[in-house]
Amino acid sequence: MKIIGVTGGVGSGKSTVLNEIKKRYNCVLLLADDAAKELEKPGRDCYRRLIELLGDDIVDDNGYIINKKMSAKIFEDSSLLEKVNGIIHPAVKTYILDMIEAEKEKQEADFFFLEAALLIECGYKSIVDEMWYIYASDEVRRERLKASRGYTDEKIDSIMKSQLSNDEFIKASDRVIDNSGDLEATMSQIETIVKGL
């Protein structure tokens, strides 16, 4: 089983590409955001630690963490971001490593695709066999974010500034997949790569 890390900037179309990969290949797909959400559920270690840090006013009537409330607290006090990341990131990494091991033991899938915006920054390069960068031009990314999420230029600017530049993504990745055009053009690039693997 090949372990492929998939990363890219906001609006690059990672989710769309991964949904198509899931349909076409014998693979397991794990989104780091989904792992984080799982670990923030009641009863999990991250849940308890986040409430100790941020207070129990971040949960709803059923005891689930409300992400908007958690984000608002972090936004108000930037020192909390590092503490929250210190709780979530190591737990997510352990969760991912455990899942990879479990899938290796099963020996059912040909590929394990791991997606996260911060794969490079969080040191996942040593975990994956290959790092794929889903590239789209800034112009295309802006159009997508305005259309799909209703983001303003200011919001897009602030998110893009907080992420790695194209050059940094390219330098840290084994393959660059251009997703500026239509999905079929992107999938034909992936088909070529997969055949080579």
Q: What's a concise summary of this model?
A:
The protein is an alpha/beta fold and 197 residues long.
Polypeptide structure, described:
- With 197 residues, the chain is of the alpha/beta class.
- It has 2 domains: 1-26 and 113-197, Rossmann fold (3-Layer(aba) Sandwich), CATH 3.40.50; 33-109, no CATH class.
- Helix content is 56%, strand content 13%.
- It has 9 helices and 5 strands; from the N terminus they run βαβααααββαααβα.
- The chain has helices at residues 14-24, 32-39, 45-54, 67-76, 79-106, 138-149, 153-162, 166-172, 183-196; strands spanning 2-7, 27-31, 111-115, 130-135, 175-178.
- It has a 5-stranded parallel beta sheet, with helices on both faces.
- Helix 2 crosses helix 5 (79-106) and helix 3 runs antiparallel to helix 5.
- The protein is globular, with a radius of gyration of 18 Å.
- The relative contact order is 0.21.
- The model has no long low-confidence stretch (mean pLDDT 94).
